[in-house]
Batch of 4 targets.
Target 1
Amino acid sequence: MTRSQLDSVSDLLLNSPLDLGGDVAKMRRVFEELLGAAPLPGDVRTRTADLGGVPAVEVRAGATAPTAATLLYFHGGAYAIGSAAASVGLVSEIARRTAATALSVDYRLAPEHPFPAAVDDALAAYRTLLDRGTPAGSIAVTGESAGGGLALALLLAIRDAGLPQPSSAIVLSPWTDLTQSGGTMTTRADADPALTRRALQTRAADYLAGADPRTPLASPLHADLRGLPPLLIQAGGREILLDDALRLATRAAHADVSVTLQTFPGAPHVFQGFAPLVAEAAQALDQVAAFINGHVQPEGRP
């Protein structure tokens, strides 16, 4: 990532009207407007989908292959804002690189639907894929920010329900610890152009609605991670959630999970969303695609 590219991305985030800790209704509108303003490439195709009563958006980009992965994707937004539609840009970049069909899940949001509603929706969506004949080995679970935390919570719920695990999981700048206890909450506070501890505390309180923030399905960092599938973690070097990623990788390795950690010095939160403009973001997604394709097991796919 060149310095000029990094400066442009940081300036964009710093000057954004989005205040993650602000009024939820207003921030939802702002978020949708910001992400909806970016035009999609002409090869992106979307349609609505239903996953066991959970709405989703099916995303394809470029050529798709019948033996490619099915991506089950969870958007970010601190469990309070964001949508499957707003995530199409980033999801399509991954789908194009993997020749996959992606399903971005519109899980229920807080404060209207606090924990564990999002986890329940994620598990229902995954069960539906299995019930429809999609082999677990062909599914890659993916997510960014809070969606990364939700993806990890889904893996725990899958394990605890006795269901087969997906082929792999990929989490981008994951929010894994709702206690906000990571050291980079302080050491990266002045460097992070996107997130603040105050905003995350506000949104965590809405999501938890009185639940213990150390509850494993709310904060997967505090879970027993044994039995999870191969895991790829990517994080930017200037984000306050960096420690969430670093500590997750350490705990996963201690739990005998096959884990790959990739950090990108100078990169902000979910920088991969700037892949069409920033070389290092595109390279990071190339590595995501290689990880997915390296683990997908299409055998038995109808």
Target 2
Amino acid sequence: MSQEQQPVYNNTTTTAIENGDKKDNKLIILETQEERRDRMWSLRIVYFTMFLVSLAFSVVLTGVWPLLDRLDPHAGKEFMGLIVAANPLGQMLFSPIFGYWSNKMKSIRLPLIASMAIFCIASGVYSVLDIFPTSTVKWWMFFARFFVGVSSANIAVCRSYLSAATTLKERTDSVSMMSLAQVLGFVFGPALQAAVTPLGSDGFIFQGLVINMYTAAGWINVLLGAINLVLFFPYFFKDRRVAAKEQMIIQGKQTEKETYKSVKIDYTTAWTLILSFFVIVFNFVLLETIGSSLTMDQFAWSKGEALYYVGILMSVGAFIACLAFCLISPLTKRFKEADLLIWGGFFFMVIGRLVFIPYRGDIPKLAVDREYKMENGTIAFYDEDDPIVLGCPVNSQPWCATTLQLQFPEFLFGFVISTIGYPIGVTLIQTIFSKVLGSRPQGTWMGLFTGAGCVSRIFGPLAVGSLYTRYGTTWTFTITCLMMFLPMIWLYLLRDRLAIEEVDIKTIEMRNLNGNSTKIQNGTNGLIKDKTVIINENETNDEQEKFISNGR
């Protein structure tokens, strides 16, 4: 074997020999050590981008209404709802566009730099809303949040790149890390907003700009966005994709395009996973939407108590979710991903909704209206924290008088089990979806996938809020439980098609090379071609040298 043919054997290099004439064995190296370092660094930058997108959404969320009310007291809460929906709306509309764009580019660098530039500009506009006249400021806020949503369409690009820049064996761990980065963004966002609260609503003037507890969050986004943009410059970010090359080696194809065109997409499974993603996100935003009002109605908590205790509950839930993300990798080594998705993700979510359906106890404490008439005919108001006005408002929600109370132990259990099921479900849906698509460019498909999640975030709060107000806990949680149960059954029926067989080129054992080449039987997905021998990196260097010597 000539010196220039000699591969470097280490834990980061994978070598394949495509059998032909033994004298002309062709060595194909998946990646060098330097390329692997570049790839790992590029994935870390993508994780940071996902963290920043989540942070940008959550850091200003708690301050949207107070800031809008301060800038335009006549805007109203209905317009505030439009502003909150503007972010996922922009993301939904532009996710397929960014995904398609990334498919047409050799590198994801340009789409991501463009998205971060939009992010910085939109966050800057949000931070200087004080300069706009009262008559139009609400629309400036709307468009600022809309274009922050447009910039967050880069999630589709990030998901597509993660699928292309990881091997099948790495995919689950990488998707878990990406999901964890998103959760941490949602956790640190409100904490960051709380950290700048001491600035107050007046704040201070810096270079003619108002820096207060509302605008400081926007400027933090600008700073982090600028850092993120710089990280995509060629010096820091190098686009390294291995998924297609991995399959090219395994299948014995000559080009990457030939590789992914040889495997057709299972459209039924792909669209099932998109629908499942929509359903699981829809159900998760349920508690975010009605969490405070639900606890106030069922447990007679005041507004302050609801915000305090639900805030604590959300923080604990985020911690539990982080633990669940960390457990996904070891669990997938013991159980099939499809089974873990069905029983650890969807089944837990179904149970979480099922226990929310009240079945014991009495009706909740009924509240009276704050407004009442005194003996002399004067209209007076109870204090909002007066015990008499706390509870389920039977006048505006007639179901309060006939529906049993949701008990606190069931509420707590349902919340905890849902925060375990959601991260497992959402991570494995993304993982399996990327594997179903194969090694082909996934930008457009990931755009559709991301868009489905955005639709949930837009219509979920509207639908759940209306359903709960009109029909109460029994109907709300029965319907959402069925929404989770039906996709779970459908996924169970498709479980064999969800089980994408992983053939890691690092772990296919060496066999003899005398005479005919070793034949590796085709897997259920037809990803492996006969007459391909892969060198197992777990073998020692001496054994590898001996193996190649026998093949001369």
Target 3
Amino acid sequence: MLTILENMRLMVIGHNTAYDYLLAVGIFLGVIVGLKLIQTLVLIHLRRLAKKTKIQVDDAIIEVFERIKPPFYVLFALYLATRTLTLPPIIETVVGLAFGIVLAVEIAIAIGRLIDRLLEIRVKETDGSENDKAQLSSVLQTIGRIAKALVWIVAALMLLANLGVNVTSLVASLGIGGIAIALALQNVLGDLFSSVSILIDKPFVVGDLIMIGEHSGKIERIGLKSTRLRTPLGEELIISNRELTNVRVQNFGRLQRRRALFTLGVTYNTSSEKLRRIPEMMRKIIAAETTAEYDRCHFVRYNDSSLDFEIAFYANTSDYNEYLDLLQNVNLAVYDVFAAEGIKFAFPTRTVVMEK
């Protein structure tokens, strides 16, 4: 046996002996088996700990470890195995570069997955309404994108540093270039900062019905550059976040109740007795609706063709369709009651007096 080993040490293939190749193969196979064994043991230990805890952070860590795939083990083992051999510089450079790239990418992907999973857990564990969760999800998604972008930037800089690139001068030059890029992308950056302002200040959240000028719709998504609304006609309206922060926005999504204010005009030949009874009629009509709260009814003016009553009541709902249903019920009830009482609605009329 010793003779065989001695012969292998003396047998030179290229710049390495047969023993060197055998050692490299052993390291290659041993590292693959060892890494897989370590992964299995770590997962078993983490799963045991996860069963004893109620938090889901450990579950997220387990998922990250589970997604480490064999190709990474193979490349890592190949990198270590080649360290024992004397190889041409080009091969050593290629293997080292490939390992550095894969290692940086694998770490960045793993951290990105961990960030996504932790943010997802944070949203699920939040107590509150669906709107609150949707708003929190929008904020955390933005934070997650920024965090993952920083992770990839750091990974790229570390890789360049390992390749011998002067990262300090590169960062300095990027800083100067960044100013020029910032000036060129002023509008884009303005939208980005506006989106952060929207997510922090919360003037509206996903699901809110808002009105901007002549346009209205429900918020479907708050992005980094724009916000998407679904209009009552079903079309998608896309508005830049910078525009949203510079205009007056009416938010109907946070209404606890809606106020209805309208005017009814009756004819001039209506008797004073019926005029005095109209406020009480309106009170009873509105009180008959379970979701309505009567406010007032007053005879407010003598108009050209009508005697005007101003009526106000509250609809105890934030849903616009329910509000319209209630308003319709009140209007139909007014029509029926006035018809039964012989009270006529006024409309524009003109009386012509002819004299001889």
Target 4
Amino acid sequence: MFPYDYGSDTPETLGTVYVVDDDDAVRDSLKWLLEASDYRVELYDSGENFIAKYDPKAIAVLVLDVRMPGMSGLEVQEHLLARNAELPIIFITGHGDVSMAVNALKRGAVDFIEKPFEQAALKQLVERMLQEARERHMEKERRSLNEALLAKLTPREQQVLERIINGRLNKQ
């Protein structure tokens, strides 16, 4: 496995932005905004539809409306927490209150933005969260690769490696 080449980014390597909002106009405007930056955007009109299609292995960020018919944004967040999903969540709402925002942030949301939101600020936040998600993904891949390589060592090679790690020569 070679180090990640940031110079050859495609929409797939940049990451996916999941947009979950019951308002067609909000979904469409976010799709336009984010696709203009070459992100892969997936739109969902409900929390239930998103949960049914969510890929936990994807490098992604979730832009999530708080108040929707059926499953609310906070319920989607709860569901993802129960699945131990490492998905950054940016809440957007037209009807937020302080206690709702505090609750969402305490449960791990990265931000809570009121509609109408400043497009440049949201885009910058999405970019930062996707960069962090890419870095976490690469770290997991490095760790898996290292574990696979260590598993291939013979018992003697493992013994030598342990001694080197502990600052001893392999003959000591």
